[in-house]
Amino acid sequence: MIRCSNLVKTYYTGTTETNALAGVDVEIASGEYVAIMGPSGSGKSTLMHILGALDSPTSGEYWFEGKDVSNLSDDELADIRRTRIGFVFQSFNLLPRTTVIRNVELPLVYSKIDRQERRERAEKVLHMADLEEGRWSHLSNQLSGGQIQRVAIARALINDPALILADEPTGNLDTKTGEHILDTFASLNENGHTIVLITHEAEVANHAHRTIRIQDGQIVSDRANGERNLPPLGVKA
Length: 237
What we know:
Elements: E1 2-13, E2 16-28, E3 33-37, H1 44-51, E4 59-64, E5 67-68, H2 74-84, E6 85-89, H3 100-105, H4 115-128, H5 145-157, E7 163-167, H6 175-190, E8 194-199, H7 202-205, E9 210-215, E10 218-224
Helix pairs in contact: 4-5, 5-6
């Protein structure tokens, strides 16, 4: 599904040059559950933005589902984001004074899908995200953090994406609620969804089947979870 070759991303601030990614090579197959792990400033969020077609590399290649994404136009990138990738963010990014089900339907509003089909698809993904029906008519600002994150997961699933990108999805949640959310991702993966999880926590990364560790813009290890204990952050494997 994903193939990155020698990805470089450089940012310029005045005369200062910063390489957020310094030659990243990675492949992710359809159906995998992968964690990308690293400390703040390691380049993991930059890599996620490129994988999600939110940003383009300075150089190198990114192939998604057999298509070279590196050189696509803004409109073509937007189409991939809308139809093939679902995003789950730490900050949720829901409309606070809008009902749960309307928040979930929102990505379909501009797709010329009629109201009945939008509602049916929203109800289906809310069940998949394991949010009880009694909450569907609530405003999103009336929910707990865990419930809001389930709404965000449902919204990410509404277009039946090939890839789900989750950026620190448990970062604003307590430990127990975070575990429940990670159980939901595991269930989605078992049902065939490809998931890439961005995190700085080893405990969260260990819920995935494979962990890619990134440091200073470079991949320092890439192994199946359980192969051996992960070293602490800052230590190259």
